[in-house]
Amino acid sequence: MDLEINLYRAAIGLYNNRSNRSFCHIHQKYNTGSISLFFVINFAIIFLLTIINLNFSTLLCIVFYYSFSINFIIVNDLMTILFFYRVLIKLILIMSGDVHVNPGPKDKYKLSVAHWNFNSISAHDFEKLRSLQAFNSVYQFDIICLSETFLDSSFSSDDMNLSIKGYNIIRADHPGNIKRGGICVYYRETLPIKVLNICQLTECLVLEITNENKKCILVCLYRSPSQSSDEFDTFLIKLEHMIDTIFNYDPNIVLVLGDFNAKLSSWKTDDNDTLEGICINDLTSSYGLTQMISDPTHILPTSSSCIDLIFCNQTNMVTNCGVLPSLHTSCHHQIIYANLNFNISIPPPYERHIG
Questions:
Q1: How far is it, in rounded angstroms, from Cα 169 to Cα 194?
Q2: Are the C-beta atoms of 332 and 299 separated by less than 8 Å?
Q3: The domain containing residue 218 runs over which residues?
Q4: CB 332 within 8 A of CB 320
Q5: Which of 63-67, 113-117, 275-279 has the lowest mean pLDDT?
Q6: Same structural domain for residues 140 and 63?
C-alpha cells in the first residue's frame, strides 16, 4: 500500500465523519419540514378511506403500512407517534359501524301498541300465549291488547300460565263469569300507566299514559257480533259517553283499538257496509277519530274482512301501523299494531337488596 497507515486511518475517519453528518442532516430535515406534511397527508388518506367505506381488512393493511413508515422516519418523535395512533384508533372505531362517537344509555323511547283477538288464552294448553311471548321478543311492544280471552274467575291474574315476563296484566272479563268474550291488556311494568274507570262498557279498558307534560289515552274494547239491535244502540250510547269523557281529560293523543265486528267499504274497499260499521264510523268521525287499518284482519278460507280496527285523533303522531299475520292456525284474526311518536321515559336505576 502506497499510503502510510496514519494517512489511511485519517482518510477512513474523515469518510465516516462525513457520512454521519449527512445522516444527521437528513434526519434534521425530516424533523423540521417534512414531518408536518407527512402527517397531514397520512391523516387525509385515512380520513378519505373512512368516507369511501373501505372494508376493515384493507384499512388494517394501510394502518400497518403507515405504522412502519412512522417508526422508520420519525422514531425519535414519540409524542407525534402517539397522537397519530390516537386519531387512527378513533377512525377505526367509527368505521366499525356499531360504535357511536358518544354513546350513552337511552332515556326515552317511542310507544308501541298491538292488538290480537286471541280466541281463548287457555286453549291448546296456553300455546298461543307462549307464541305471543316469542313474537314479542322480536317486536317489543309496550302494550299488548287481547280480546276474546275467555277468562273467568277460575283464572287468577297471578297464575303463572298468564304471565309474560316484564309485563303486568289488567283484565275485563265477560260479565256473568262466563268463559267467552273478555279482554285483557299486558303492559310493560316500567310503563307509567293508570286505569281510568270512566267506561260503562263491560268488555273495555281505558288507560292513561303520561310523560312529562304529555298525555296519551288508550282504549281497548271488544264488541260481540251477536249483539241485538237494542244492545248495539246501548253500545253506541256508552261508547259516545266514554269518548266524550276522554276528551275532557285533554289528552295529546287518543287511540281506540279492538275487535269491533263492523265493516265499512271506506276501511277496506271490498268490504260491504254494515249498519254497525256506518254508525261506529259516524260516531268516531264526529270526535275527529280516524280509522287507520285497511288490510284484512279476519281471514277465512273463502273470505276476508277488516273488523279489527285502530282509531286515532292524531294520525300525524302515528309513525307506523299495519297488520301482522296470526301466530296460530286456530286463530283467524290477524295482529294489528301502531307505533306512536310519543316519548316514554325510562325509570332511573335503583338499588335492590336481596334479603
A1: 12
A2: yes
A3: 108-345
A4: no
A5: 63-67
A6: no
